[in-house]
Prior knowledge:
By secondary structure, the protein is an alpha+beta fold. It is 27% helix and 30% strand. The chain has helices at residues 24-45, 75-91, 120-129, 132-140, 153-158, and strands spanning 7-16, 55-56, 60-66, 101-113, 116-118, 147-152, 173-179, 182-190, 214-217, 220-223, 227-229, 232-234, 239-240. The strands form 3 sheets. Strands 1, 2, 3, 4, 5, 6, 7 and 8 form an 8-stranded mixed beta sheet that branches. Strands 9-10-13 form a 3-stranded antiparallel beta sheet, with no helix packed on it. Strand 9 and strand 10 (220-223) form a beta hairpin. The chain is globular, with a radius of gyration of 27 Å.
Amino acid sequence: MKSAEPQYYALLSFDVANSGPRNTIGSVxxxxxxxxxxxxxxxxxGFDLADCAPDDRGDGTILHVPSRVPxxxxxxxxxxxxxxSLRQHNRGASDDDQVRVRAAFHAGDLVADADxxxxxxxxxxxxxxxxxxxxxxxxxxPRSATVALIVSKPIWEDVVTQGARGVDADLFTQVTVRxxxxxxxxxxxxxxxxxxxxxxxSAAPKPSPPPMAHNSFGSINFHxxxxxxGDVVQQKNVYEQ
Length: 241
């Protein structure tokens, strides 16, 4: 059992869109394309992919980026370079070998156990990358858009809005993620393409007004807006005898 003392990491999760229909050979090619693109993108950001304890997810991966790496670099140049690399790959690839990814960016304290790194920040990371809002944004984007990025509120406040070079808050759209037990604000951008168009949430139905109370005065039933003066009932709307 490894030490359970928590360590802070920036977290990037990547999930390849439309990976289900691919056969085994196609899945192997997909994984090779993504790993090569991520290796180059990490190098552009100034660190090695191997430094991030990649957690393989079959058609995606999670990177645990050490705290020594400035977080703005994970958007630019890392994600910018990744989007460019996948775009170049897709230009020469068949329809079956196109690679587009959903990416989520969060951060927090994790602990190491016998199976790797774990903690509640990875739960939110998973909800973000699997969210309907991010899936819809990538599906609606032009084919030249290869990376749909969603960031958590801490990343939005601590990274995106701080004016780092190549990180433009105006290119993000705010959404509400509701997945399983999670409800959280998040922000989405199409890397290299700007703010996506996301479906507006349906307005919550207005509650029906409660039934009007009835009072009784002798043989007359009347609503609460009736006025009683002596033995005279003045009914503003409707009364029944």
